[in-house]
Amino acid sequence: MCEHILFRQSALALLFFSGALAARPQAEPQPQPQKLESCKPVSERTTPEGCWILASKPLGRLPAKELFWTLDVYPDHGSAQAASGNGSTVLDALGRVWLLTVGDKPALPSNGKRITQIGPLPVKADEEYTAQYRESMMNPGAVSRTHLHSGPEIFYTEAGETCLETPSGKQVSRPGQDVIVPEGEPMELMATGTEPRRGLVLVLHSSSKPHTTLVTDWHSSGLCRT
């Protein structure tokens, strides 16, 4: 008789527990961030969003002293070309004409406008470098593939913000706050904030190595998602 009562109590408890599990609301699946494709040549551009390679310029061996990335804008190509020198590149990006220079700090432009100077740049005296310039347009929530470069990557942000996670932690690039990631450091980028991220990127990579390598042996901890 006691065994029969214990069996009925166990069965009722099991039914109650099963019903409670069935009644518990299921958590809605979290939307996955949009993964961006690798940067492509600007000739393949079909949409404003993405990462687009605008130009590459071999610089050879750089002098063993403090070097900077200087960003100036000019009203037209003629005035920008007239002000250009060694280590300079003129290109169209973000709706303006830019004179981008890797080297010493040039004098303030007479016919243009100084936007910023970023540096010193962490480069090696015995390495030959190529300056690769990119235009980056990312909607909030977009995430890059995990990668590294064979030289430093430097971020200038005109609007919005980008959070970068590396094994060293995270950094945020926003207007007035530029970011440098050293050679060989794995990274994941995420557009954060509430407005699209618009900016320029310099990948100052070894001329004898690929500019970008996808990474599979390091994964972000989601620091930019918190």
What report would you give on this structure?
With 226 residues, this protein is mostly beta strands. The chain is built from two helices and 15 strands. The chain has helices spanning 2-23, 77-83; strands spanning 40-41, 50-61, 68-74, 88-93, 96-103, 113-118, 128-138, 147-149, 153-159, 161-166, 169-173, 179-181, 188-192, 197-206, 212-214. The longest helix has 22 residues, at 2-23. 31% of the residues are buried.
| Tally of alpha and pi helices | 2
Distance between the termini: 58 Å
Secondary structure: helix percent = 10-25%
Q: What string, H for helix and E for strand, traces the elements in order? A: HEEEHEEEEEEEEEEEE
Number of strands: 15
Stretches where pLDDT is under 50 for at least 5 consecutive residues are 1-27, 29-33
Which range does the strand content fall in? 35-45%
Mean pLDDT: 87
Shape: globular
If classified by CATH, what would the architecture be?
Answer: Sandwich
Instruction: Calculate Rg over CA atoms.
Output: 25 Å
Question: Main sheet, how many strands, which sense, barrel?
Answer: 6 strands, mixed
Topology-level CATH name: Jelly Rolls
Structural class: mainly beta
Overall CATH class: Mainly Beta
Output the CATH homologous superfamily.
Jelly Rolls
Question: Strands of the largest sheet, in order across it?
Answer: 1-2-7-14-9-12
Please tell me the total number of domains.
Answer: 1
Keywords for this structure?
6-stranded mixed β-sheet, disordered N terminus, 226 residues, Jelly Rolls, 13% helix, single chain
Provide a quick synopsis of the model.
This protein has 226 residues and is mainly β. 13% of the residues lie in helices and 42% in strands.
